[in-house]
Amino acid sequence: MKTVDAIAREKARKSLKLWDLQREKWIFSRIRDMSEKMEIPWDYMQAIYNIMFSLSISHQANNIGNEHSLPSFSNAIDLTLPFRITLPNKAKLKIAFQGQFGAFSHLAIETIFPNAIPIPSKEFTDVKEKLAGEFADLAVLPFFNTIAGTVNLGQKVADSLEHVVLYKFPVKIQHMLAVPDHINSIDQIEFVHSHPEALRQCHNFLKTNGFKGIEQHDTAGAAKMISKTKKENVAALCSEAAAKIYGLKILKSNVQDLENNFTFFAIVANTSKLPKIYEKLSNT
Question: Model pTM?
Fold first, then answer.
């Protein structure tokens, strides 16, 4: 940390910002170029440097005593959140997510903010609108899965917001093949409804069993939909929580292609709301 201490003293001496957006963008562009030349996956390289930046900025903040002057800026990552507040946090924030109750984004919210008020949204663009207005304090967006790769829509919406990514964290994803009570055997199933990402994560299972995947807006929404059907050849890929919420029974558990299936989520805040959000987070 000697180098970090020296950087902190130099910033203090020259009255430089603790975190400069343009500088960090430049550094990350160089890191991306390096990852391509060295043929190292960008996601891995980014994860390593995110940790390094997080530790560095937090240490600098404590060193030069201006932790609370961390700026709000567009399309940036505030990596110091775990060092500034307790996680999980009991703040009763309104948090938007894409999907119905029981969706994996809903479960991700409960992991970090167990007392939050989750606000379901049909589309990712609806999440964006709620975060931009007064309907939500924060949003939780998926951006990467260890089987399927980048969650394109979640990443695209996050990139379009005037936001700060407060924290990134993984959630283990376990998909259940769930059906209404009147279906008793996996041999009856022909069509499996779920979110496109879930269908991708269970590709081998679907192919092996000859099931046709049908895309829906989200996993929990698929569970809710088939809970109302009288058809005898349909199932949903969803969480265990969604199956319970919508009264489905589980024919087969953990049907994802890999046991260690994780999705990384981002907690996103609108920059204009950041001071009030930090106040709420700090008072719990």
Answer: 0.70
